């Protein structure tokens, strides 16, 4: 009786493909960190990963897709946890987001990919568009649906910019006393502000006299 060996073979190919994909992601992250978005090339990343350049295009489509997969989707992005937190409910979303963000960094997160992301977006229109399309755009729709707000893109951009600034001061510049403030104190200070960004109404401005 002949044995069907197609499943083990497929499983082996799948594991090999996933290993190659992870090598490409790791190589891309290093290249983007070192050379920036504009300086990193798909061919150079493929060489670093030890794969044919066609495999990079097979998994990621283009350079923008590779940048998104290697830099934008990791836990370093300020909005990384927001979608999962919304899945778990919208109650106290500001405090939960701030706590998760700083706990992850305090546990030993690597800050350099976050700097790479923002540096690249600052000088490269393509990287800036990828950043928006991958994070702000989809999350804005989630925020709009969850809280019934019409200016959701501005809200998520305020959240990302606020948390990015705090992370830069705390982990890169190590400004005291911010650098040594406890996570729970940061949650108490910043959580309500992030909550207002996501769910609050725009304050009415007093008319000028």
Q: Helical proportion?
A: over 70%
CATH top level of the largest domain?
Mainly Alpha
Please, what is the oligomeric state?
A: single chain
The share of residues in extended strands comes to under 5%
The sequence of SSEs as H and E is HHHHHHHHHH
Tally of individual domains = 2
Which structural class matches the secondary elements? mainly alpha
Protein architecture, described:
By secondary structure, this protein is mainly α. The chain folds into 2 domains: 8-62, Arc Repressor Mutant, subunit A (Orthogonal Bundle); 82-199, Tetracycline Repressor, domain 2, CATH 1.10.357. It has 10 helices and no strands. It has helices at residues 6-39, 42-49, 53-60, 63-72, 82-87, 93-106, 112-123, 125-147, 152-172, 183-199. Helix 1 packs across helix 2, helix 2 packs across helix 3 (53-60) and helix 3 packs across helix 4. The longest helix has 34 residues, at 6-39. GO terms for molecular function: DNA-binding transcription factor activity; transcription cis-regulatory region binding. Residues 41-60 bind DNA. Keywords: DNA-binding. This is TetR family transcriptional regulator.
